[in-house]
Amino acid sequence: MSGGSDVESRLAAVRARVAVAAAAAGRDASDVRIVAVTKRQGTEAVREAYAVGQRDFGENYVQEAVAKISELAAVMPDARWHFVGRLQSNKAAVAVRSFSLLHGIDSLRTVAALSRAAVQQGRVAELLLQIRLGGRGEAGSEAGGRGGVDPDGAAAFLEQACVHEGIRFAGLMGVADPDLDARPQFASLRELATRLAALGLGPAPLGELSMGMTGDFEDAVAEGATIVRIGTAIFGERPRA
User: Fold this and answer.
1) Is 208 left (phi over 0), alpha (psi -120 to 50) or beta?
2) In a domain, 186, yes or no
3) Where residue 109 sits, what CATH number does that domain have?
4) To 5 degrees, how large is the angle CA 176–CA 180–CA 184?
5) Model confidence at 138: pLDDT above 70
6) Do residues 241 and 224 touch, judged by C-beta distance below 8 A?
């Protein structure tokens, strides 16, 4: 696990890089939210980030996340938890209860399960629709393990998804194909969000753009990311599972 000074200095470096990238793009750095991805990180490292002002944290696995959130609730009362992995529909109820924003939604079955859970819990689940960037594949399949709805199918997906109660699509999410230049992929996601917003689909304006990770977040900021998902650059290499 990284020491406190390492986490603090790495997080400061990431914030500085976001600020530089935002300034170069004529943007305000405060418009870019850093989600510190804590997958397989111990709670001490998470607390170290929280102690220096980090409030948004991301997890990839529901079971690991729930244990971590429960352990940290008393000492991190205003932390916002994001689910950034592939969500199985049978985990919908606990996901709605545990996370403020669910990234990576690309299944109508999962949307239906989240709707049922949210209505039962009296909540509104905030979702991001994952769009497949780079390589194209069969509908519902993963391209390079990244998943996502094909861009050409995004409008139809939202039309079907938004009939469900208790859910709101707040924007789009994408993972760049590592074999291709990231920046054009992020530009295409931004352009798609603009087109979808113009269609008026759903109760939210699709203003969030979750794109960019440790290796490409500066390109994402340049292309309009409102959320970047950073793990290794903040916490160092993840411990082995």
Assistant:
1) beta
2) yes
3) 3.20.20.10
4) 70
5) no
6) no
| Spatial separation of the C-alpha atoms in residues 79 and 54, rounded to whole Å | 8
Examine residue 241 and state whether it is found in any structural domain, yes or no.
no
What is the domain extent for residue 9?
4-235
Q: Is residue 108 part of a domain?
A: yes
Residue 79 included in any domain: yes
Q: Where are the alpha helices (DSSP H) in 41-146?
A: 43-51, 62-72, 92-98, 108-121
Q: Which amino acid appears at position 79 of this protein?
A: A
How many domains is the chain partitioned into structurally?
1
Give me 129's structure tokens: 């629709």
DSSP conformation class of 147: -
The whole-chain average pLDDT of the chain stands at 91
Helices 4-24/43-51 angle, 10° precision: 50
Band (241; pLDDT cuts 50, 70, 90): low
Can you tell me the distance from the alpha carbon of 215 to that of 207, in angstroms, rounded to the nearest whole number? 23
Banded model confidence at residue 199, pLDDT cuts 50, 70, 90: confident
Q: Report how far residue 4's alpha carbon sits from residue 11's, in angstroms, rounded to the nearest whole number.
A: 11
